[in-house]
Design a protein that fits this description.
- This protein is an alpha+beta fold and 86 residues long.
- It has a domain of 53 residues: Multidrug-efflux Transporter Regulator, Chain: A, Domain 2.
- It has 4 helices and 3 strands; from the N terminus they run αβααββα.
- A 3-stranded antiparallel β-sheet has the order 1-3-2.
- A hairpin with a 2-residue loop joins strand 2 and strand 3.
- The radius of gyration is 20 Å and the shape is elongated.
- The N and C termini lie far apart (82 Å).
């Protein structure tokens, strides 16, 4: 039997990665960690110390709003001062 134009089986993770509805614009902790090249543990530590971006929790799962991440990054922006050589 020849199967034509049959879509692959639906995977639950496909739905989660599509980020439809209320989860659009949100990043999970692993996604944010990868995006800013930090570990998930660092993000956990920042959350506990209130140093990192604001966290929204759904149950026990943390999510980060993309807009909040941008604001946090801009708020941490610093100009570098050049040291004069003598």
């Amino acid at each position: 039997m020849l199967r034509r134009n049959v879509p692959p089986p639906f995977e639950a993770q496909d739905f989660a990665s599509a980020k439809l509805g209320p989860f659009s614009g949100l990043l999970s902790r692993p996604e944010l960690a990868a995006a800013i090249a930090k570990s998930e543990r660092t993000l956990q530590r920042w959350e506990a110390l209130r140093l990192g971006p604001p966290v929204t929790r759904v149950g026990q799962t943390p999510y980060y709003r993309e807009e909040s991440i941008r604001e946090w990054l801009l708020g941490n922006e610093r100009s570098t001062k050049r040291r004069l050589r003598r």
